[in-house]
Amino acid sequence: MAEIIWGLATSHVPSIGAAMDNQKTADDYWKPLFDGYAPAREWMAEHKPDVAVVVYNDHANALDMSMIPTFALGTAAHYQVADEGYGPRKVPNVVGAPELSEHLLVNLVDEGFDLTVLQELDVDHGLTVPLSVYTPDPGDAWPCAVVPMLVNVLHYPQPTAQRCLDLGEALGRAIRSFPGDLKVAVFGTGGMSHQLSGERAGLINEEFDRNFLKKIETDPQQLAQISREEYIREAGSEGIEMIMWLIMRGALGDDIRRVHETYHVPASNTAAALALFATDANEREQL
Ligand code: DHB
Ligand code: FE
Questions:
Q1: Mean pLDDT of 252-263
Q2: CA distance 78 to 95
Q3: Helical (H) or strand (E) element with 8
Q4: Is the pLDDT of residue 65 over 80?
Q5: Shortest CA distance to 100 belongs to which of 171, 197, 191?
Q6: Rounded distance from Cα 196 to ligand 1 centre (Å)
Q7: Active-site residue 125, yes or no?
Q8: 3-286: which CATH topology?
Q9: pLDDT at 281 (0 to 100)
Q10: What is the tens place of the pLDDT at every residue in 118-162?
């Protein structure tokens, strides 16, 4: 059976990708953020999954605002890197895992999560930046296949945090029931507090972020009680992206260990964080 070996929560700020693409990671502005990633990157490089399920949101790049699925799953064999206005990032295209996608789809629909099926999808910074956070120098190919799971965090009403945690728990069950020796990592992307435009542009609520970072490990159920309105009020209009971390967290189950965490302000005009969790299964394997 497949096993989930780790979960990574990470912001997907596009300029983090641009800093890597343009060799700026050692600049004064970026060095502290990338130094914060280093221990997690080292650990993940030693614990390579076969497939990553990447929970993210499209930012009106692949799906325009004429069609907004609350939850969707990619089932393709390949995903091209989206052109977000400046040409696609010069990173490898993404190889899918269609058999796992189909398995997840059936199991999630059977559990009452009716996901939209995306047979074609260009993946934007929401997915490619987290892959770069995991593997800064992929060369010609990313080190694992990818199943994209998309969440509407752009258009009111976004799914509740509780629904995201519940979906994550069902996702975990679905992954673990996949026949075959597959090592799977789950990425929850987006966050932390940010508001990109409007009167409150640049909003940073470090207290809210730090509490979320703590509770995502110890008490995700408490975070699931927070309403979408409160996420937006406290963490900014785009800060609600952090509900996607709860999907990752739900998939991991109870036996987790925090490997590394880092929090940094500013990245663009936002707060950025990374939190890496190992599962018990992974620990047993190391013994
Ligand atoms: C920005 C965009 C994002 O999608 C995000 O999650 C954080 C920051 C930006 O444009 O700066
Ligand atoms: Fe975003």
A1: 96
A2: 5
A3: strand 3-10
A4: yes
A5: 171
A6: 7
A7: yes
A8: Protocatechuate 4,5-dioxygenase; Chain B (3.40.830)
A9: 60
A10: 999 999 999 999 999 999 999 999 999 999 999 999 999 999 999
**Ligand 1 contact via 190 beta carbon (within 6 Å):** yes
Beta carbons of 7 and 249 less than 8 angstroms apart: yes
| Dist. CA 226–CA 277, nearest whole Å | 22
Residue spans of alpha helices (H) in 47-154: 98-110, 125-134
Q: Are strands 116-118 and 71-74 parallel, antiparallel or unpaired?
A: parallel
Length of the chain: 287
Domain boundaries, given as residue ranges, for the chain: 3-286
Q: Is the distance from the beta carbon of residue 172 to the nearest atom of ligand 1 less than 6 Å? A: no
Per residue in 2-53, pLDDT (tens digit) is 999 999 999 999 999 999 999 999 999 999 999 999 999 999 999 999 999 9
Q: Among all ligands shown, which has an atom nearest to the Cα of 271?
A: 1
Model confidence pTM above 0.85: yes
Q: Categorize the per-residue pLDDT at 280 as very low, low, confident or very high, splitting at 50, 70 and 90.
A: confident
* Ligand 1 proximity of 13 Cβ (cutoff 6 Å): yes
DSSP 155-200: SSSPPPHHHHHHHHHHHHHHHHTSSS--EEEEEEE--SS---SSTT
